[in-house]
Amino acid sequence: MEPVTLITGGSSGIGAATARALLKQGHRVAITGRDADRLAAVATSAGAGNQLLTITGDASDETHVAAAVSEVVDSWGQLDAVIANAGFSLPGTLENHDPADMRAMVLTNVLGPALLVRETLPHLRRSKGRIVIVGSVAGTRNTPGNLYSVTKWAAHALAENTRLLVAKDHVGVALIAPGVVDTPFWDDRGGSPAAAPTLTAEQIAETILFALNQPEGVDINHLVTRPTGQLN
To answer: Which parts of 26-146 fold into alpha helices (H)?
Structure first.
């Protein structure tokens, strides 16, 4: 049977690019996102038919996460890999963030991956599958007042914490930390830094597939991928 992968935040950017790459590799793929129209657009462009399942929901809501996992397993009978990709950043610094926006970012970027791990572990233990958490170079390189960095530090900690929990069960855990990637992530921040080198979403998707495609017995735990020329 073809492997089954669930990706949160799959309606654009890294999530959508990873879905397309996995479909080409023969996976059955489920993608989640808050915007049903954007999910439908990915499905149309991928042309994958019943190999792609789209699920509308909020990655930071425990009922939505549980329902998404149940739908995938009910549809395909298994779960072999999950990619915690949903996340966003706020422009400015914590001095001028709206507290409600701060809460939403922390819930999406930190609680969201933790909920995904919680709900999928029983299935991944059975399949001896893999977990990928999409972090960021910001998760190891602080900038003044950058609360997004704080959330990604937490995501990096979650990856190692989870690895320690499931290593005995032969479940793989990988943290992928991209540098600057040219995706809609930057739309609310006025665009990616001027003249900065960037990676494409497809290049990060290939990094994710590298972690997922390791042979049995090999577990890639932490990959940092920057565009050549990025200093921080």
So the answer is: 36-46, 62-76, 99-106, 112-127
| Chain center to CA of 135 | 8
Asked if 72 and 53 touch (Cβ cutoff 8 Å), the reply is yes
- Pair of tokens at residue 12: 């654009």
CA 104 to mean position of chain CA atoms: 17
- Residues with catalytic roles: 148
Whether pTM > 0.90 for this model: the answer is yes
Report which residue type is found at 35: D
Contacts of 71 by beta carbon, 8 Å cutoff, 6+ apart: 30, 53, 55
Choose among 125, 149, 146: nearest CA to 137: 149
Distance CA 87, CA 89 (A): 7
* Cβ proximity of 42 and 36 under 8 Å: no
Fold of the domain built from segment(s) 4-225:
Rossmann fold (3.40.50)
Q: Which residue ranges in the chain fall short of pLDDT 50?
A: none
Phi, psi of 32 (to 5 degrees): -115, 160
